[in-house]
Batch of 2 targets.
Target 1
Amino acid sequence: MRPTRSRTPRGFILSLAMAALAAGGSLTLAAAQPKADRLVTGSIPANTKMPAAKPWSGESGASGHPEMTAEAIRAAADDFPRCIQSLWPQAARHGVSRASFETLTNGLKPDLRLMDLMDSQPEFTKSFWDYLDVLITDARIQKGRELLEKYRPVFDRVEHAYGVDRHILAAIWGVETNYSTLAGDRPVLRSVATLACIGRRQAYFRDEFLIALEILHRRDIAPEHFVGSWAGAFGPTQFMPRAFKRFAVDFDGDGHRDTVDSIPDMLASTANMMKRNGWQAGHSWGYEVVVPATLDFSLADKARMLSMRQWEQLGVHRVNRAAFPRPDDHAFLLVPAGVQGPGFLMTHNFRVIMKYNPAEAYALAIGHLADRLRGGAAFVQDWPRYERVLSRAERLELQQLLANHGFNIGEPDGRLGGETRAAIRAFQSRTGRVPDGFASASVLDMLRGR
Ligand code: CA
């Protein structure tokens, strides 16, 4: 098994979103049909025509995991009814009645298409800047401002109760589902039941399935609206069942925690999650900064939390030369595109956003969209748009070459995380380049020895 740190369902969802982007598509988390009347309510009108579901390819998964071979998938699919029934004692411990269990699981069929989606490894990945371009658009800023105005009394109450900035909540809503228009239309119970009994993440999804049963048994969410992404994330801000259980609140006081059809419950539940994850009220997530080319780039590491004052002493300053509001706050430096792109000082609240979604590009999109909704300016510095983004094969080759050169990158997986960046920095230092850790095509060429 590979390390699972970045392999959460959100990671899967993000990979899928990236794949959709790479294929030239829009950022859909599932084959959702945007409908004007789904806006805001998150509900699906009864007359909505569902697109024909794509069948399973019948092929083994790309992960090579023994549970992902075509034979293992077929065998597990044959065993699906018995597997689901075997979970009854655990469902009972979740407070699900026998009658509910029978009603909810009777006739439940697995959705084998999820096996293709779980193991899809997009050949091309979007660059940081392409990703931000897709998520931060004038339309999304405009729509977010309209919703902040429309639901101003609710945002007022939620902000007061939880101390989480309304712009962050609106940005999560905007980035996760484009304000409820792309929330997904796969029945959550079927998705998590499938993943609980078939494929390589069964232990993880068993709890998600049991909690999904619990949600339906308690009638928190209307069954026909309990739909979402293929990995089981549902509603405007894409809660997973387990996160729902921990964080959802009944803010409108109707006795149900409904993060799908109740805007107050949805916003308050999202705020509650951010607060419980450590959100610091009144603080920013971070700042765009100018990084001098002479900086020791080994400092650009999320384990290196220095005070704003210390960063200023190292020559790092805000783009508009404004002072940092709290010079004693600590932050880490993120330089996602190397010395030729913008830098960011990320405070504690950025880490809180990353608990929601562990991808840096995603968390930066949420922070930046929040700033834009508040009336803030676009990023000032240019991205190195002339840089070609490495394909998956090239990323794997880069990692293998770094390993061959004696650098520790863990197991090559085609994902360019902190370990790979550190190895690139070490390689760049050794060869007299600015060690900014950016995986450019020229670094790959140098590694190839050209
Ligand atoms: Ca409620």
Target 2
Amino acid sequence: EYKDMSKEHMMEIRRQNCNPMIMKVTYYKKPVFIHQGHMQWLWDVDGRRYLDLFAGVATVSVGHCHPKVTAAAEKQLRKLWHTTNIYVYSPLHEYVDKLAATLPEPLKVIYLTNSGSEANDLAMLMARLHTGNFDIITLRGSYHGGSPQTMGLTSNSAYKYPIAIGLGCHNTMCPDVFAGPWGGSHCRDSPIQTIRNCSCPQGLCMANDKYIGQLKEVFATSVPSRIAAFFGEPIMGVGGAVQYPKNFLKDTYKLVRERGGVCIADEVQTGFGRTGSHFWGFQGHDIMPDIVTMAKGIANGFPMGAVVTTHEIAASFGRGVHFNTFGGNPVACAIASSVLDEDGTQQISHEMGTYLLMGLSKIRDKYEIIGDVRGKGLQIGVEMVKDKASREPLPPAAMSEIFEDTKDMGVLIGKGGVYGQTFRIKPPMCITKDDADFFLAVFNQALNNYMERKIKSINCSK
Ligand code: PMP
């Protein structure tokens, strides 16, 4: 019988032998010591059960230790763990055939990697080789990886180091219709709009033109006339579920292509049905990327990533040898195949996501410290503010109190946004209405507790 190490022993090892940074991002004042997972649930070493609405950052897509996925892994582990993809073996071909079928023409050529950063590194390289250009544009607040190259795409200081990162990487203003300088109540593609007052004529989003204007300014000031690529997450992940004005991606893609660049959709968080209405986050925006990158949910938590592109781009890239030892590992492929076989997850994302968004928007209306509720499917953000009028971020200490309390009542959620001001809800795509109701009750209670403590402290200091 397997027994966990003692908590003290694990913390000591963490202090002595682990990446010191993980101590800082342990997130909770009282850490959670995980023992086991099943579907949407996690158990700690003391047997306490948590509803996991963060899913290892949108990674456990169909459920922790999903029985069918686990069975597929076990079956493959008994047959073949590894070989190099210079040989021909079934799991890889079964998988890429299935994955290609989920993507529209001309996105049909697949490269398998082991992580999202690796996929984005590869996509950067492809874009540069194919276009013969160097400069790449991303959105402020985005996250595209932590390798020295992708660190340049990522636009969040917390993840940057003082090295020669990001040569040729430029950011344009994040078209955030809640917290940004422009935006209002009818700009984005979401069941829930921001409650910010907007002077735009009804149905016409002027904010989009303003943010596109910022992109044009980047073209005019920061890059050569020809560029290699634009990288964009269909809905920001780490950046706090930011959604853009309706035509922003479409207009951006057009301008980028006019300058010789290719358009890259980073679907590391938004892929595989997470946005509910579509299987891929880019769908529904009237755009067609030239390259799509994916990871996280691709294999339900098993390390894997992929880049999908066109035959044309693959041909430009094919002039050199690209090799990756683990990319296309048979076990990873068998797992990823069984993830694709799992029916109904996109529907659950759509239904439960919409239900959660509706519930959260009611809670938003009750509390002065909730500024915005947004997202699509099970990619949801709740932006916390000092007050609705200022839209200024709720300070980290207050965020932590609500976050810790939510956890103590049995629900794990995430934090994000450039200022750590947004709660992130991106559960395994198997949650039920009861789970959603439980979370809504817990979150409401945590906010209530916070407000009561705040009122008490004001009264005491009088
Ligand atoms: N792109 C996005 C949108 C991500 O959220 C992440 C991870 N948070 C990455 C890329 C990098 O993926 P990985 O951590 O697997 O390298």
